Each structure stands twice: as C-alpha cells, then as structure tokens.
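Morning run. Coffee first, then this:
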Amino acid sequence: MLTRIFGIIPSTLRRGSLVHLAWCVVVVALLSGAAARAHEIGTTRVSVLFQEDRTYGVQIVTDAVALAEKLKAVAGGSPLDTCAACLQSAFISLEESFRQRVKLAFDGREVRPAISHAITPGADAISPTVVTFRLTGPIPPNAGRFTWSYGWTFASYALTIQGAEPAEATTEWLEGGQTSAPFTLAAPTPPVDRLGTAWRYLGLGFTHILPLGFDHILFLLALLLPAVLWWENGRWRPATTLRTVLLETTGIVTAFTLAHSLTLSLAVLGVVNLPSRLVESVIALTVLLAALNNLFPVVTTRRWSLAFVLGLIHGFGFASALWDLGLPTDALALALASFNLGVETGQLTIVAVVLPLAFALRQTWLYRRLALPVGSTAVALLALVWCLERGLNINLFANPT
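And here it is:
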C-alpha cells in the first residue's frame, strides 16, 4: 500500500520510501492534536437569556453519551450504559462533577445555579441522543458584567447571549474551557444597523474558515496542491505557465464557491435539511477523497468538477454554523450574503498564501516528491480519523480527563 502511495517514480520510492514514511508520521503526529479540536458543528450549543425580572437562564445542548462518558471518566465508577434511563440517572448522580467545569460569574464572582436536564433521543439511527441542561437563578444585585466558561467539550462552540432587549444579543465562538468576553448588563447595546449587520456576518464567515474551519482548509489545500502540476504518462509534471495555473485555480475556487453557496442557501431557507452528524461525517469524507485523488489520480482534467461535486456538502456545514450563530429575520438576505462573502474572503486568503509558494516550488524535488505525496497522505490519514470519529461518535485522541 505504501509503495502505491509514494510510488510516483518506483526508483525514487526504493531510495526514499523510508524518508516519505517518516515525514508522514511526523506530519500526522503534528496534526493529530487538531483532530480533537477539528471543527465539529452542532455538537454543543450554549445560549444565555437575561430576563427583565433580573433572572437568568442558560441552555446547554450537547451529545448526551459523549458528555456522560466524560463525566464518568472524571468521577470514576462502572462503565456507562447508554440507555435513556441510564443516562438520566448518570446525569443526576454526577451533577456535582458537571458543575466543576461550568462557570457562571457576575463581576468576577461565581454563582451556583439550579440545574435541570432533559434527554432527547436521536431523530434517526445516525443522530446522537441529545441532553439539554437548563441552568437558572437570580442575577446578583447591582451586577454589571457576566462571564461564562464551559469545560466539557473539546471543540469550538457558539455561545449566544441575549439581554432583556432584542438588540442586546451577541454571539461568540469559544474553545472548551475558554472564558467568554464580559457581557455588559448595565447598559443595553446600541441597535446594529444594516452596515453593522453586514460587517458582523462578514467577520463570522471569515473566521469560520480562518482559523476555525480546519476541515474546510484541508479540503481546499488538497485541491490546490496539484494545481501547479499536470498529470501525464503516470506522473505529475510541473505546469509550464502561470496563466495555466491561474485558470486551473480560478476554476477550482469558483466551482467550490458556487457549490457551497447553493447548498448553504437551500439549507438556510429550509428547502433541504440534513442531520449535522451526517454532514460533518461526509465533509470529512470529501477531504479524504480529495487527498486520495492526488495520490491515485482519477480526476486529472477539469478538476473544478471535483471541487463542485464534493463542495456541495460543505454548504450544509456552513449552514449549521450560521444557524448556531442566529440569523436576523429582518435582514436575512444581507446576513447570508455577507457570511458567504466572508467565507469566500477566507478561501482567497488561503489561495493567496499557498499558490505563489506552490508555483515557485513546483519544479523542485521537494514539491513533487515530498510535499505533494506526503502532504496528501497526511491529509488523507487525518480525514480518515475524522470519518471514524464523526461517523462512530467517538474521540480517538482527546483525553476525557
């Protein structure tokens, strides 16, 4: 198998296969830590609501089995049974353990909320069982600022905070265990105009690619690696002109943009809806297929068609993130267009960094014999890990404690 992967030129493989293998091991080892933090849309969502009667309510929606396994690992005890009644009992008995990594603070002082929870079975065979925790309590007198921290997830998640007035809503992406930016309670946030809405969703779209969209980044890199080469007689050869490379890259990026824009719009408008776990699993599969096509070329011309077909599923992933962030009903089209433009800006930033370097190195042994096969193999292996994690709802690298 390794001979086939690295065997672009058999004689070169015989002299350097161990070098290629060593590079793969190093690259995958560096990337494996990112597997635990890879973008996993829909796994955890947190919303905070402050009422006019000076009370607060926090809702945490997350994968019930994954959370229960983490709690069990910290508290110790017998292996977890995943039936609904068993999960219900586990969350009741492990409430104090759960509180250890859930921090609500007003003006820097932590409060102890009342906790309740409800378990919802998955809608189908591939959807996980979901638990919804509700944390409630009074806002301390004269409290001016609120902060939040949630340490029971390994991935990034969206935190939405809604004040007493509709204009006081904010959304922030956090990593597991990270403390949120302070939310001011004393003075309402001024209403956001249309320009502010466009700017906000432009920024959210950009950060959804850089730095949060690690799987989308790897998919684009897998498509760009051979963009400065062309396939002839069973081997990759360097492209002769910059014009050829620019046309190839423009076709790939345009096709990917059209594909994910189409499915993003269909999902946001409610025309097509897919389970988030299925979407994330298939996104990982598209990364794997794009990387394998570099190692065992099947689509060697009109590679924009590969970008379009595989890019369709990425739009559903963007839609899941957009739903988590919330959409203004009075400016839906503006928010959608701005988010899409932000995503496109993030993609073009990657192209602007990667393409000149790849073009400059395309004729070197380093690029054709090392960067392309080793890089594609590392991406394929990491994507395979994601496929297993997301498809089987497991975490192969993270330490639950």
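Residues 332-361 form the longest helix (30 residues). Good start to the day.
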